[in-house]
Amino acid sequence: MTVSASTASTISALDEINAFLPCSTPDLWVENALKNQKIMLIDHANCEKKAASTALSLINRYTDNFELLNKMSRLAREEMRHFEQVIALMKRRNIAYEHISASRYAAGLRDMVRNKEPHKLVDVLIIGAFIEARSCERFAKLAPHLDSELEEFYRSLLKSEARHYQDYLRLAKTAAGDTCIDGRIAEIAQRERELVEQPDTEFRFHSGPKANTA
Q1: pLDDT tens readout for residues 176-197
Q2: Using H for helix, E for strand and C for coil, what is the string for the chain?
């Protein structure tokens, strides 16, 4: 079987992401997602909206960083396009865009952000890389188990989400200058692993697994 260049590139990006992440998404979380697809889509829409908001916040704060401005401008547009695609899916499936609480994942990571620059920017960008990488990993893990429409949609997101991870990581290395950030990545990775593996009381797109109840 011949593999297209685009497919090969996506596979390579996923391999890179899986090597970057400290753990795989637990299988129980996948089971939770399949049983809660309404909540999955609502929270997915929320995640896309928040990702765009984060990019715009960085644009507003770091106006002298032209590389960051360009990358975040493109990212914000793409995330809002994804938001539009998710709510269109929800409309076709008669899923109301209801308010639901956020998971502890992003807040748990952002608790690690240091206060002083350039450390603050470096941490925010590293965390952005983890969030985008985890999203990409979960899209890939979910896709084979979904109906054809959702499978196609989630697979279509892999390339852009992988690029967002790469952009955030490159920007973090640039912001750090001559300082190696490997140690900081490892520290944040440990927290990310805890948030992904520890049980949660509610299912969300970035939650830990929710224990099955009778």
Answers
A1: 999 999 999 999 999 999 999 9
A2: CCCCHHHHHHHHHHHHHHHHCCCCCCHHHHHHHHHCHHHHHHHHHHHHHHHHHHHHHHHHHCCCCHHHHHHHHHHHHHHHHHHHHHHHHHHHCCCCCCCCCCCCHHHHHHCCCCCCCCHHHHHHHHHHHHHHHHHHHHHHHHHHHCCHHHHHHHHHHHHHHHHHHHHHHHHHHHHHCCCCCHHHHHHHHHHHHHHHHCCECCCCCCCCCECCCC
Say what the pLDDT of residue 8 is. Answer: 58
Residues 25-197: name the CATH superfamily. Ferritin, core subunit, four-helix bundle (1.20.1260.10)
Q: Where are the domains of the chain?
A: 25-197
Locate tokens 């490997």: which residue?
Answer: 182
Give me the pLDDT at residue 95, please. 98
Q: With cut-offs at 50, 70 and 90, classify the pLDDT of residue 212.
A: low
